[in-house]
Design goal:
Low-confidence stretches: 1-53, 227-245
Strand content: 25-35%
Radius of gyration: 25 Å
Number of helices: 4
Oligomer: single chain
Number of strands: 18
């Protein structure tokens, strides 16, 4: 039995909507995959378009090949410039490689790629990448690296368009646009896509924030590359943060906004180098402000836009701070003002 305690302060009868959303999201994803395959099949027949997107491209990388992740290719009369311009014109393109003509008077060949493929030294080619607008993070590979996810997992994203999380999930990612927005499709154990996160990277490339297909806020903080280890230095063991203590950041939010209209709290057991600890995840929803704040152990990790309060909701009269891990149901009932209830034992 999974040791997870969940409390949801939203009160509503619509229990089928998340399932319908998940099915609709999966159908849309399958439709996009089928259409994408059809486009690839006919890619050779496409003609060069106009570089009207205005996307910023890197300087050409001479004697560099970026193999793999091609979604279409075509012969090019002239030099590498036409290949770079075509990549700039296509939203799906994030890097390109121009293969030099085999002989004078012959056409070269352009390969457009859906991710920023890894560079390799090769005199055959000239390559380049599309850069993100308004960020210092570079190209579409700004997602590449190690992240601390909002749920406590460590996530490694590679330039081949894959991500792997320490909690057993794996995913595929893509750039949505040149504004620094990404989509990650998550699954575990060979199952179909279970979660789809749409995330925007911060201008400094250090944070991700957004929502999943169910409308819940998601986010992550980049884990910097480890600094050089000083010989003989002994690292200090990490001290788990007490999930029962309100943080200074949360206190500031409560002072400015008051208690959230509704909230969701998850208590998750995690194994760390210092032993097992309980991680507290909180989703605070302020409908008048149209925002949802996500906290992990008191630290805000994401902020998302919130739809207006749905019809039929009633707002709780208690703050999130009164709930803690391993509360007995009788304690929960007292906090919720439930005076009578029926208790029935069920198997795990």
């Amino acid at each position: 039995m999974l040791g997870v305690m969940c409390f949801n302060a939203d009160h509503r009868d619509d229990v089928s909507r998340p399932t319908l959303i998940a099915v609709a999201s999966l159908m849309l994803w399958l439709t996009a995959a089928i259409l994408g395959a059809a486009v690839n099949e006919n890619a050779r027949a496409e003609s060069l378009g106009s570089p009207s997107s205005g996307a910023r491209m890197s300087a050409p990388e001479h004697d560099v090949d970026r193999p793999g992740s091609d979604y279409r290719n075509f012969p090019v009369e002239g030099g590498w410039e036409a290949c770079a311009e075509q990549c700039a014109a296509e939203p799906r393109c994030w890097s390109w490689t121009f293969v030099n003509p085999p002989a004078v008077g012959r056409a070269g060949h352009c390969w457009l790629k859906s991710v920023v493929a890894k560079p390799t030294r090769n005199a055959c080619c000239i390559s380049g990448v599309k850069e993100l607008e308004g960020t210092a993070a570079g190209g579409c590979d700004a997602l590449v690296g190690r992240w601390r996810w909002f749920n406590g997992a460590t996530v490694d994203c590679d330039s081949d368009g894959t991500c792997k999380a320490s909690n057993g999930y794996s995913g595929s990612w893509r750039c949505v646009d040149s504004k620094g927005q990404f989509e990650i499709q998550w699954a575990r154990g060979g199952q179909p896509t279970q979660f789809v996160d749409t995330l925007k990277i911060s201008p400094d490339g250090a944070q991700l924030s957004g929502r999943n297909q169910f409308g819940s806020g998601v986010g992550a903080n980049r884990i910097p590359a480890p600094s050089a280890v000083v010989q003989g230095a002994t690292p200090e063991p990490a001290t788990p943060t007490s999930s029962a203590d309100a943080s200074a950041g949360q206190a500031g939010v409560l002072e400015e906004r008051g208690s959230p209209d509704t909230f969701l709290i998850l208590f998750l057991p995690l194994e760390t180098s210092a032993g097992e600890t309980i991680q507290r995840q909180e989703y605070w929803r302020y409908y008048a402000r149209h925002e949802e704040l996500v906290f992990v152990d008191g630290a805000q990790v994401a902020r998302g836009d919130l739809e207006p309060l749905p019809a039929g909701f009633t707002l709780p009269k208690y703050p999130p701070g009164v709930f803690r891990p391993n509360m007995a149901f009788e304690e929960l009932a007292e906090q919720l003002g439930i005076e009578s209830f029926v208790k029935e034992e069920i198997p795990d």
